[in-house]
Design a protein that fits this description.
With 180 residues, this protein is mainly alpha-helical. Helices cover 84% and strands 0% of the residues. The chain is built from nine helices and no strands. Helix 1 runs parallel beside helix 3, helix 5 packs antiparallel against helix 6 and helix 7 runs antiparallel to helix 8.
């Protein structure tokens, strides 16, 4: 319904603001408003998935790795149940970042493998995210030549697609790879 769409759009914008400003308290309040509405029978599958991704992102930014992995698993399970796989890549990326922050190379590799298998040529932004995480993984294990290659690919995709925030992150990862 239009009211449901408006409700979630406004909360997602506010949550994005809280994420960028580091306001965990307000972000938590917003998520607490969103979760019961998303769980209701009137919410679409995509709305429920978007809320799950928002929860996972919020947990990731709060360094709650196990909670992030649980929310990612719930989101992927929900996508499998509903057949709506539009944000699987985002969820897998959140899981991979949580594995990186936790320092778990096997889990990073598992997430990257699932991400790679789901890459679609028409979704260029996904390639940028994949190569960014792959570059960080290579840095983590000390494979600097591969980190550089992936960082350069990630930056090229970000510049091509005009995604400013990911482009900035790519510059940081590339600088780190060059430094190493």
């Amino acid at each position: 319904t239009p009211n449901m769409v408006q409700f979630f759009q406004s909360r997602m914008h506010a949550l994005t603001y809280c994420t960028w400003t580091g306001d965990q308290v307000s972000g938590g309040i917003i998520l607490d408003e969103m979760k019961p509405v998303a769980a209701s029978g009137s919410a679409s599958s995509l709305t429920r998935l978007a809320c799950k991704a928002a929860e996972a992102n919020f947990a990731l930014l709060g360094d709650r790795h196990e909670q992030t992995h649980q929310l990612v698993a719930e989101g992927i399970s929900l996508a499998d149940q509903t057949g709506v796989h539009l944000i699987d890549f985002v969820l897998l990326g959140q899981g991979a970042y949580a594995a990186l922050r936790k320092g778990d190379p096997e889990l990073i590799t598992a997430y990257l493998g699932r991400m790679e298998a789901s890459l679609q040529p028409s979704q260029r932004v996904s390639y940028g995210l994949y190569y960014n995480i792959a570059s960080l993984q290579h840095l983590f294990v000390g494979n600097i030549p591969s980190a550089l290659v992936c960082a350069e690919k990630s930056l090229a995709v970000s510049e091509e697609t005009g995604t400013v925030a990911p482009e900035a992150m790519c510059h940081i990862v590339l600088a780190q790879a060059v430094y190493e």
